[in-house]
Known about the structure:
Blueprint: E1 12-17, E2 24-28, H1 41-50
Antiparallel strand pairs: 1-2
Amino acid sequence: MDNQYSGDRQMFKGSWKCSKCGAEITELPFEPDGERPLYCRDCHRAMRQDRPRRF
C-alpha cells in the first residue's frame, strides 16, 4: 500500500511502541516529542474510522 506522502515526506526511523496495542513502530512521518502517544498504522486507522466525519 503506497502512502501519498512517501515521495516527499521525511520519515524518522527509531524504535517505539504503540500506545494502544504495544506493537513495535520503526518508522514515523514525524519526530516524536516524547509527550504525546504514538499509534501503529492499524490503531491509528481504527481510531480515524471511529471518529464522526466533519463536513
